[in-house]
């Protein structure tokens, strides 16, 4: 399941689970803006389980939900979807658009890290 295909509320639930590591329905409810009912959240986490994005573990009387993929992996998929959709698959175009935005500032450490990553990618033939 591509995380970019999630509804706004499903993304909010996933954000809550990622932020906490694992979370109960009540904890997720505490994290959501204008949270729906507990039953609605239970249904949404069940749907996310069916989509293969969450697993659950019973502890006492409660279930705790955990993401199946690490956040970085899910983020990479979502970023690739944005690049494909809005920048015709061009990472360069996406980066230029971001860096050209007024108020965008890269620290010296960030520039150094980007240069290093570009050099490493060049060495690998990417």
What's this, in brief?
With about 130 residues, the protein is mainly α.
**Secondary-structure class:** mainly alpha
Report strand order across the widest sheet: 1-2
- The tally of beta strands, per DSSP, is 2
Instruction: Give the CATH superfamily of the largest domain.
Output: Winged helix-like DNA-binding domain superfamily/Winged helix DNA-binding domain
What are the secondary-structure elements, in order, as H or E?
Answer: HHHEEHHH
- Give me the Rg, rounded: 18 Å
Number of domains: 2
Q: Provide the low-confidence segments as ranges.
A: none
CATH topology of the largest domain: Arc Repressor Mutant, subunit A
Overall geometry comes to elongated
Number of helices: 6
Largest sheet: 2 strands, antiparallel
Strand content: 5-15%
* Mean model confidence by pLDDT: 89
Molecular structure report:
By secondary structure, the chain is mainly alpha-helical. The protein has 2 domains: 3-67, Orthogonal Bundle (Arc Repressor Mutant, subunit A), CATH 1.10.10; 91-126. The protein has 6 helices and 2 strands. It has helices at residues 8-20, 25-31, 38-50, 71-86, 91-100, 108-124; strands spanning 54-59, 62-67. It has a two-stranded antiparallel ribbon. Helix 1 crosses helix 2 (25-31). It is elongated and about 50 Å long.
């Amino acid at each position: 399941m591509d995380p970019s295909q999630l509804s706004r509320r499903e993304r909010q639930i996933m954000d809550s689970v990622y932020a906490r590591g694992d979370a109960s329905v009540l904890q997720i409810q505490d994290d959501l803006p204008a949270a729906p009912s507990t039953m609605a959240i239970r249904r949404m986490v069940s749907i996310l389980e069916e989509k293969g994005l969450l697993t659950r573990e019973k502890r006492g009387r409660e279930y705790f939900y955990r993401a199946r993929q690490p956040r970085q992996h899910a983020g990479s998929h979502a970023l690739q979807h944005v690049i494909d959709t809005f920048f015709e698959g061009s990472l360069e175009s996406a980066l230029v658009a971001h860096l050209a935005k007024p108020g965008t500032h890269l620290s010296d450490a960030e520039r150094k890290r980007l240069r290093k990553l570009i050099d490493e990618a060049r060495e690998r033939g990417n």
